[in-house]
Specification:
This protein is mainly alpha-helical. The protein is 82% helix and 0% strand.
């Protein structure tokens, strides 16, 4: 998990704020859809 954090921080430094916002919104929407759909 620690290595994933370092890798994510390293990638975040290279991406622009617009791309970070798009990735964040996509992740939140994906998790919201996962919660709303009854997947077993």
């Amino acid at each position: 998990m620690f290595l994933g954090t370092l890798l994510g921080a390293r990638i975040a430094l290279f991406l622009s704020k617009v791309w970070l916002r798009r990735i964040f919104i996509a992740a939140v929407l994906g998790l919201a859809i996962k919660l709303l759909l009854p997947l077993h």
